[in-house]
Each structure stands twice: as C-alpha cells, then as structure tokens.
Design brief:
The chain is built from 14 helices and eleven strands. It is an alpha/beta fold. It folds into three domains: about 170 residues, Rossmann fold (3-Layer(aba) Sandwich); about 100 residues, 6-phosphogluconate dehydrogenase C-terminal fold (Orthogonal Bundle), CATH 1.10.3660.10; about 70 residues, Alpha-Beta Plaits (2-Layer Sandwich). The chain starts with a strand and ends with a strand.
Length: about 375
C-alpha cells in the first residue's frame, strides 16, 4: 500500500491533527486538502502541512494513495458519491466519523468496500478548527477501525500499522459494534450533558443565580456541551436509532433511581452511589477518550493583593505557560480556591513541584 500522497476532505480539528501528525513523522509525504474555507487551506499551506493553498479539482484528490474523509458524516457520504466516478482503484478510502453504519452502507451501495477502512480516533476537544489541531491529539488514543471482508487483509494490516506509527492504538470492530459502543459511552453522554445544561438554563432566573454559583461538578459533567453543534447534529441524525434506544434505557435507569430516592431507604441510596463509584473508579481514566485529558490542579490561596500575579510570575520564570486560571467561588466538589490548568502533563507536574513549596496543592483523582 503506497502512502506517498494523502488527501484530506475536511481539515478541522481531527483532520488537521492527523495531517500535522503525518507531516511531522513522514515529512516527505505530499498532503493535499479540501476545506470549507479557503483561509483554512492557506493557513495549513503556510504551516507547511499541505501542498495546495487553494481548492483543487476533485480529480487531484481522487488520485492520491489515501483519502481521509474528515467532514461530518453526511458530508463524507456526499463526497464518496462525487469521488466514485474518478477514484483510482489503488486509492484507499478511510474516514474519522463517530458513526460507522451509515457510511459503510454507502460504501456497499457504491461498490467501494474493497477500498474502504472506516476509522474513528477516540480523541478530540471542545475546541474546533485547524488552528486548534495538534500533532499530539492521537497520542495513546484508541483508534477504532471497521471494514468488510472485501478488504485485502494485507492492506488492512498495513493501514493498522500505519495508524500505530502515528501514536494511536488501533482496535478492530464491526460497524454495528462501534455504533452501539459510541452511542453508549459518547453519544448518550453528550445528549445528557446538553439536556442538563438546557434544563439549568430554563430554570435560572433573571439574576442568573444558577449560572453564577455553578460548581465544579456541574462544569465537569457538562464540559462536552462545548463541542461543535453541527458535528453533533450529524451524529444524532446518523446514529438516531441506537441513541434513541440508549435514551430509553437511561430513562428507565433514572426512574429506577428516582424510586429508590422516593422510598427513602438510606442503605439503598448509598448502595446505588457505591456501585457507580466502584465502576467509575475502575475506568482507565488516564487513557485518552473522546475529549483529551485536562491537566489541572487546585491550590489554597490567601486573599491578598497580588497573590495570583505572584503565582503566574513564578511559573513564567520557569517558562511554563498557563492555559487557564481562575478563582473557584463555589468549592462544593473540590478543594482549593485557585484553579490552574496547564497545556500538558509535563508542564502541570513542573508547576506543582514549584508551587507546592509555598502552597497547599490539591489534585483530582
């Protein structure tokens, strides 16, 4: 399988991150891209990631060795139909979508099953766009691969290995297994998160008291609601049946818990929370999921003039950049009055080492 020329249909966060990663590890690879905004192509061209700074004729992409479809699910399918008449027989098609059954059905309908390996990197961010793309996004992230029996096993193994060389951990699944799994651990949580945010919004008053006192627990479980609404519209449309099945199952679970609370049996309530805690604590939470790790910690800080400036200056002297910093006004679910978020694990560890000499540090599990 040749990998000399690669095309990207869509150059947002995921597509841009994969393209940057490939260019870093395989600098001789020629990468071409198509994006919804020409400014994105110019930015990627200036960064030395792609060869074209303007939109090319679709034939230029169709003759590449590999095409990564990195647009929303429905748009990826529309491009398959456009590419089919001009597609090189030696070109390998892959995608990065969060739903697999829909695109696999389109691949079968178009007779392209011998050229397609579905892909879904289980990594991402609440930020979007090429400007937020990172060469490290795939590092140690699970990368699910799906395909039919029509794909040459040798080609599959080569592509599997190629994904490994990008720092990811490939896992093979059927499209059905993938869509049920992601509906359960990704799509339903996004639906719940959006529903919870909208519930709080509707129940807030003119003074926005709920928004003002929203604690860390609320922010933590609703952070994913900052993801792209357009992407999630496509996901909910494409994986509708499985998401609806999981919503119904969640409703039953919620009603069961409601009844336990209504019965007022302290032991049953504690048992319910205990089961959840045990399972949650057993998760491999240090591995990358749909969203990247958050490198954050908290510290106790006296209310003195210049306190935050002193901390920022201490880290700046060591050339450590702070991603986010803020006072926690409601600390119901975490210790420490000051919240600090760093860009990566190494920076966080160095910052903690420096600051713990003067301040009491708190870290989440």
């Amino acid at each position: 399988m040749k990998k000399d020329t690669i095309a990207f249909i869509g150059l947002g966060l995921i597509g841009g991150s994969i393209a940057k990663n490939i260019k870093k590890r395989y600098p001789d690879t020629k990468i071409y891209a198509l994006a919804s905004r020409e400014s994105t192509l110019k930015e990627a061209y200036r960064a030395g990631v792609i060869e074209n700074d303007t939109v090319l004729d679709l034939k230029a992409y169709a003759t590449c060795d590999i095409i990564f479809l990195c647009a929303p699910v429905g748009i990826n399918i529309s491009y398959l139909e456009k590419l089919k008449p001009m597609l090189s027989k030696d070109c390998l098609l892959t995608d990065v979508g969060s739903v697999k059954c829909d695109i696999q059905e389109a691949i079968l309908r178009l007779g392209l099953e011998s050229q397609f390996i579905g892909g879904h990197p289980m990594a991402g961010s609440e930020t979007i766009g090429f400007q937020n793309a990172s060469t490290q996004l795939l590092e140690n992230a699970y990368y699910i691969l799906t395909c039919s029996d029509a794909i040459d096993p040798c080609i599959y193994q080569e592509f599997h290995h190629y994904i490994e060389t990008l720092g990811a951990i490939p896992i093979k699944m059927s499209p059905e297994e993938h869509d049920y799994a992601t509906a359960t651990i990704s799509h339903l949580p996004h639906v719940i998160s959006a529903s919870l945010v909208n519930l709080v919004c509707k129940r807030d008053d003119d003074r926005e008291i709920l928004k003002t006192i929203a604690a860390g627990g609320f922010r933590d479980i609703t952070r994913i609601s900052s993801s792209s609404p357009v992407m999630w519209q496509h996901i909910c449309t494409a994986n509708r049946d499985k998401i609806l099945t999981l919503i119904d199952a969640y409703k039953e679970q919620l009603l069961e818990f409601r009844q336990i609370i209504a019965d007022g049996n302290p032991k049953e309530i504690e048992t319910y929370f205990s089961h959840a805690k045990e399972y949650r604590d057993s998760l491999p939470i240090k591995k990358k999921g749909v969203l990247p790790d958050v490198f954050e910690f908290y510290l106790d800080l006296d209310d003195k003039v210049g306190g935050i400036a002193t901390i920022a200056a201490s880290l700046a002297e060591q050339k450590l950049s702070i991603k986010n910093i803020g006072i926690i006004h409601n600390r119901e679910f975490q210790d420490g009055v000051l919240h600090i978020e760093m860009y990566d694990l190494e920076s966080m560890e160095k910052a903690i080492e420096i600051l713990r000499k003067t301040y009491r540090i708190h870290r989440k599990k």
